[in-house]
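Why do we bother with holo predictions? Because pocket geometry can differ from the apo form. Keep that in mind while you read this record for thiamine diphosphate.
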Amino acid sequence: MVTPRAYPGTAVLEQIQQRVLWLATRIVDAANHDRDTGDGVKVGGHQASSASLVTAMTALYFAHLDAPDRVSVKPHASPVFHAIQYLLGNLDRSYLPTLRAFGGLQSYPSRTKDPDGVDFSTGSVGLGAAAPLFAAATRRYVNAHFGDRPRSRYVALVGDAELDEGNIWEAVADPATEGLGDVLWIVDVNRQSLDRVVPGVRIAQWEQQFAAAGWHVVTAKYGRRLRSAFGRPGGAALRDWIDAMPNEQYQSLFGLPPAQVAGRFCDGAPGAVTRFCAGLPDGELAGLVTDLAGHDLETLLDAFAACDAEKDRPSVVFAYTVKGWGLPIAGHPRNHSALLTPEQVDLLRDRSGLTPATEWDRLDPMTAAGQWAAARREHLAAAPPAAAPPVPVPGSSGLRPGKHASTQESFGRILVQLSRLEEVAPYLVTAAPDVATSTNLAGFINRMGVFSPRARRSWSEDPVLKWAEGPDGQHIELGISEMNLFLLLGQLGLAGDLSGQSLLPVGTVYDPFVLRGLDAFIYSVYSGARFIIAGTPSGVTLAPEGGAHQSTITASVGLELPNVTFIEPAYAAALDWLLCGALQSVAAANAGPAAGAGPAAGAAPASVPAEAGSYYFRLTTRGIDQQPFQAARDRLGDAILRRQVLAGAYRLVDPPAPAAGAPEVCLAASGAVLPEVLAAAAELADEGITATVVDVTSADRLYRAWQRTLRQGVRTATAPSAPGALRAVFPGGNGRRVPVVTAHDAASHTLSWLGSALGVPAVSLGVDGFGQSGAVADLYRANDLDSGSILNAALAALSLL
Ligand SMILES: Cc1ncc(C[n+]2csc(CCOP(=O)(O)OP(=O)(O)O)c2C)c(N)n1
Ligand SMILES: [Mg+2]
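The structure, written out:
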């Protein structure tokens, strides 16, 4: 381990940071001035936001971090990260002029798209700060269950205005993130956001909020020159004046010519301060009053070391910095997206001791700085993640559904079944934001317990729910924060990568509140995490609960989210196959590429569609008769039915094709409304209309199959054919055009594309307004999801033929 002083003197680090500043600035400059994009759209990039973190990041990477440490870099400092990786030899020179180019360096650090080992993606401010907290919580879980891993410190470099984001405080306040001594947040206190100067009172308030949440708070405000000035006569008054001065006034000093600084600084100051300033040599005041600790390497390294000593609570350093430090745009109120002019870049190059011929060079290996960079490269080289075979999840949990079941209750029972399998159980970990029992996780929790770093005595004598808390527990209970749920699932889903132990994470949330955590959901899957989320209960089927708890657009969100497969089964046995299939896919992916030893390693069983990403199950508490599924099973046999269920659709009712010209319709539906659809099919049959009922188990997989064939056609300029999943299941063909009615307890739009896919008229029924309280029958009637309306929709569809 590197001790804080194990670097070859501040002068060497200062040389390195000047080169980091140069490269970060030039990377943005090249993106904007060296490349012709041909479209006139501004490229952008953030030279000022980058500059304010140059010192802190130089200190981290060139003196503080060890190989197992993980760092989250605030979005707008990505050029600094890439400059450092380049100097460490982890990024090829050819990438340097490619910021924001297609296939080049990403605008904001990306785990999945950048080439140089980003630990945490960032971009949506606030999320990148919180992610390392949940990564540390994940490591604590992994250590408790699988043995201690080499210590990692989890560092987040956070913009000060990021602290406006509510998710930050949700993460800080959650009991699941308490006591994480390996966490260090470094707040880049440049007192500027995108639009304005941040009022000073906010910073004081934030510090108190961290302290109240049990964090260790360090304020790194003054550089060494200022601190020594405070010790001189009049110094105490100087300090009080700087502390009392509004940030707006302080910030306005940066852009002034040195001769005007004293006048502005002393405007309103007490006599002692004016006298102190008058005693300084000309021009010295400007450098002195802007000497902030966030640009003082030694002060920062001392602060980091003090945080390391805190083993039982997270730390935060408020590092006072200058936005645009070292650049002509320093401190300017509108510098957020300001770019240096080519002339200013030339001056900076000169000042950095470089020429156009050497400007992209690494540090000269013959210099102390170059040698130190090489030593740090070696020190930070990470061992490749350990190979592990995927967890052998079976294709079915062995669930035996009763005659009547809801998907939510079956989901809970499937997890209990899986928790009995000793080769699967250790890897399962569930999480919920205070809705574990109301989403049917109680059975799993009773068997596996609730995770807590220390055993806690239980005072409950409830026979239904045993809430045993201790380090063996496999359910992580969160406060009511869906943001935290998705951030935690994201980090549990990356545990193979970040903690050397892959897991099978399963979360539950009331379906409408998926939207409450949506940005974190997107963040986690975009970061490459793999997990399972069950949104339950869903839709207006949650009838008496009313509109605030009923979800309508979540199915569309699930279908459209990249790297997420949306699944909405109606029957328990189908859910069992689909959930086990999803877990198999997560297990295979989470085992990672390093597991490529055997043929099975890193690949899902052939029966599972090859999918990158996570799974979203939309479930319901409505119990329905399971017999129709059993009938389909008897008719098709397990092998075919399972394949179709996994592919996204199967025929629940399969009447013989009618005589030529006789009316025929297809009723396609997902989830809780299938009983109404079956009733409508029976009524249609009574009227002499043949109705095939298709249960759409995954609109997402069907849609993707359709799109794949279409896009294939587009890219190869050939006529696309109907994809197998549609051809095999939906009636039609042989000259028969069979119109389709879709029914879904979700926005009608979610399934409406089936008409286009099948090339037939479609009438789509669903919930296109906000919900309200009532009985299921009331709400289905109000939304045209009752059997009579479905029948009428079939007649309407036939009339459109
Ligand atoms: C969720 C979200 N909202 C808005 C933005 C747009 N945005 C990018 S940076 C920024 C201001 C950030 O200020 P700060 O965190 O202080 O960063 P710095 O001063 O270092 O640039 C804003 C509003 C964003 N990236 N993410
Ligand atoms: Mg800021």
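Residues 659 and 690 are 10 Å apart (CA to CA).
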